[in-house]
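User: Continuing from earlier, I have the next pair ready.

Assistant: Great, send them over.

User: Here they are, in order.

Assistant: Folding the first of the pair now:
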Amino acid sequence: MKIFTKSFTSFIIFAAIFTIIFRASLSALLNNESYIMVWVAAVAYGILMFVIGVYFGKRDSIESVIYNLFLRWNGGTFIVFGIISYVWMLFGNPAPSESLGVLNITMIIWATIGVVVYLIMRHYSIKGIEKSEIFD
């Protein structure tokens, strides 16, 4: 089973670019105390990530047959966001109101929700698939 398809790699690259832009914008908006714009940026980032995920995900489903895509795509986004956010917090220019504690809590909540959703969804993902397709 190929994990890093062309579409998934393209998604990861775009996710990294958009996450860097989001982190820089978030810090700048927090420094300026533009709290409404922080929410606008966060919602826009979420929508943008969803749209590129759907776009590249649909292309990926055409290119390859891989089951349990949720874990791979959500996990990829989680890793990219986590690495960029921790690097930004340690070496970038975070706002004084940003803290590693909040980032840690965010990552723990995201990981917990991701695992729970994966565990629920994996039960449904193998219905109707032949054993020979699953166990090569």
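And the other member of the pair:
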Amino acid sequence: MNDKGVVEKYDRALREYANEVLPGFWNELKNQRRPFQPFLDKLFGFYLYCLYLTDSNLFHNDEKYPSLNIRYVKACLALFGIHNCLQYGLVTESAVLLRSLFESYLFESYLNVKLILQKDTEERIGLFHDFRYVERWNSLQANKNLLEEGKISKEIFDRTFTSDLIKKIEDNYLSVKSNYHPKHPYHWAWKIFRNETKNQRNPSIHFIADKLGLSADCIKVYGPLSVSVHNSPSLLNLVLTGNAITLAPNFSRSIYNIGCLSLGYLSDLIEDLVNYLEFGEPGEISTYLSIFWIRTCNEDQGAG
């Protein structure tokens, strides 16, 4: 069979299959979602609250706090993604986004909000901001290694890294390199902890969690969520129905667990930012965040 015949064969088969299963699929999805819909609506409502804060000029000085703004936006979009996944019963996929939200709250290459706002905030924002020069230098070194190993051609390398760009990258790196690990500059916060680590290593997520009093969160949340990001036999618990692996949506109490964890971490992040930026009337937003979480997560959900 030629290519055209193959395409026509499977296009026809897909149309017939869709006509057979889709009407029942959408109806069943709606029926399974129904007990969870009020909770999902509240989750979406919190995303709208994030938009409201942004449009109310939470970050009134974007030039001074671009990194905080980026981290806030990424965390809010993670919540929106979690809501959309849970809306369709994609529990495993929502867990991947929750891990991203947890990283936004605790640790990630962009910014560690808790660590940045803990103390010496201006200096720490500077460390994060300047780390972009280190990342570009690391990328240059990695590409030089690929060139030496024959894994990329000189033509491709020269097209990506012109002589002027290489000089700019190296000059920028030299101007900030003393603030980062001398041999392995892979973390923006190395300088903060260099006395405690005796200059030997970059801080790990568990190390930072311990310093921020969040070790329990790291153990209880970050570790299990990593299972959803990386291949693991534990994933079978999330994709098995009986003894068979299924592609069907999974509506269970995990929707509440993941949704409420998301609200909790994002609420903490917002409260930290609001307090630091001195936004709004003192205490009002903290009060609203607490009541919103109670109304959403501390009531008897009753389904599952």
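Worth noting for the second one:
Residues 3-33 form the longest helix (31 residues). The CA atoms of residues 228 and 235 lie 7 Å apart.
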